[in-house]
Nucleoside diphosphate kinase
Amino acid sequence: MAIEKTFIMIKPDAVRDRKIGEIVARIERSGLVIERMEMTTLERATVEEHYAHLADKPFFGGLCDFMTSGPVVKMVVSGLSAVAKMRTLMGATNPLDAAPGTIRGDFAVDVNANVIHGSDCLENAEIEIKRFFG
Ligand code: UDP
């Protein structure tokens, strides 16, 4: 296992629902370290680039609307196997499949507004950290 950095974002639904504290607490309790954290409202162009792999999906426009609908909290999280560990903490993309005890399993009700983003591999983590933190 190696020390990794991953990119995490608390999405606008969770910020609106005042879940920032609970999500940050879960990340810290897991032993991972929050290295950078900032609240910001995303530009649509940034969201379109971030989700470019989904551009042909019928939900793409709605996803971009949702992700720009209010502030997000973006983070760089580091630790042993941080990428995979955060994906485990987050739970499945669709909250219906996300296990109880995971962030999505406990806080998300809708696949379109599923509370949190986390990089899916180390390569994308590096790209996303650059994209969102420069
Ligand atoms: N998404 C959606 N509808 C779907 C599937 C995905 O709105 O049917 C959104 C959801 O917010 C998800 C994001 O698109 O988190 C990116 O999807 P991806 O498959 O990359 O999953 P993730 O890596 O976020 O678990």
About this structure: The first strand starts at residue 3 and ends at 10. The chain has one domain: 3-133. Helices lie at 12-16, 20-29, 44-50, 60-67, 82-90, 103-107, 122-133.
